[in-house]
Design a protein that fits this description.
Helices cover 69% and strands 0% of the residues. With 160 residues, it is mostly helical.
């Protein structure tokens, strides 16, 4: 069991999703909720798509270092408590989605599905790519998969 004292370090606090990664069951799911909150915060700012993408890319690039730093401190590659990757994966999921609570909920469900299921090549990357980049990249792919499904739903629904 990890100590909540880790949250005193701001880098660990980010990596551990402000403590959501410390929950005993389903830390990735709880960590994704931080992503939902960040997405809603960004959506209230009414950012242009290019600026939203820049924010997401910055979160990803920072996440490589944040996750590696915390993994090194914990002595475990991709410890389940590290959930910054879920935050960024969810932001990727929502990149092209309509700004609405129902879409946010569908994005949450789809991202969690792909993050847990890890269809090809996500599972291969999760097992073979290490370091901060490896921690982040499998969730980036899960976010892309979820974003594509959301885009297909958005495209198909008006046709029905």
């Amino acid at each position: 069991m990890l100590s909540a004292s880790l949250l005193k370090n701001p880098i660990h606090a980010l990596a551990l999703g402000f403590g959501t990664g410390l929950v005993a069951k389903a830390p990735g799911t709880f960590g994704t909720l931080i992503g939902v909150g960040l997405y809603w915060l960004l959506s209230t700012l009414d950012l242009s798509l290019p600026f939203y993408i820049v924010v997401t890319v910055v979160c990803f690039l920072a996440g490589i270092w944040i996750c590696q730093y915390t993994a090194d401190a914990l002595g475990v590659h991709d410890h389940p408590a590290i959930v910054w990757d879920e935050v960024v994966g969810y932001l990727i999921t929502m990149t092209f989605a309509p700004n609405d609570w129902l879409w946010a909920l569908m994005g949450f469900a789809l991202f969690r599905l792909f993050d847990i299921w890890k269809p090809w090549p996500i599972r291969v990357i999760d097992r073979s790519v290490h370091g901060g980049f490896g921690i982040m990249f499998d969730d980036v792919l899960a976010g892309i998969y979820a974003a594509v499904v959301l885009a297909l739903i958005a495209y198909i629904l008006p046709a029905l």
